[in-house]
């Protein structure tokens, strides 16, 4: 008859894939059957210097942090895309190109 709250927080270095100018983070959450629907809150912070450009499902965006809250159901897949501002992205692309081996 009672309620409990379980909270987890973790940070994962290199958890996204992409280039130095843009990237994507993916997370799949699998729900579990419960008498009362499970509530879930997910927050994703973009890497330093990057802005969030798209989220799936729709998430609330505040600066470099995207947040979603709700009932996850059986399976919920999150995708957060982020990129550096345009001029920074152009410079990053040039830098990546110049650092490639010639042979």
Taking pLDDT < 50 over at least 5 consecutive residues as the criterion, the unreliable ranges are none
Largest sheet: 4 strands, antiparallel
Kindly report how far apart the N and C termini lie. Answer: 68 Å
How do the SSEs run, as a string of H and E? EEEEEEEH
Overall mean pLDDT stands at 85
Strand order of the largest sheet: 1-2-7-4
Question: What percentage of the residues does DSSP assign to strands (E)?
Answer: 35-45%
Label the overall shape.
Answer: elongated
**How much is the radius of gyration in Å?**
18 Å
Q: How many strand units?
A: 7
The portion of residues assigned to helices is 10-25%
Total of helices: 1
Task: Give the structural class.
Answer: mainly beta
Please tell me about this protein's structure.
The chain is mostly beta strands and 103 residues long. Helices cover 13% and strands 40% of the residues. The chain is built from one helix and seven strands; from the N terminus they run βββββββα.
């Amino acid at each position: 008859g009672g309620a409990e709250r379980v909270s987890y927080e973790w940070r994962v270095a290199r958890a996204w894939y992409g280039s130095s100018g843009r990237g994507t983070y993916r997370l799949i959450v699998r729900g579990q059957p419960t008498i009362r629907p499970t509530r879930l809150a997910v927050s994703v912070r973009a890497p330093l210097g990057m802005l969030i450009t798209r989220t799936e499902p729709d998430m609330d965006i505040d600066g470099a942090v995207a947040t979603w809250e709700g009932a996850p159901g059986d399976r919920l897949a999150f995708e957060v895309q982020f990129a550096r501002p345009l001029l920074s992205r152009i410079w990053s692309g040039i830098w990546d190109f110049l650092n490639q081996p010639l042979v």
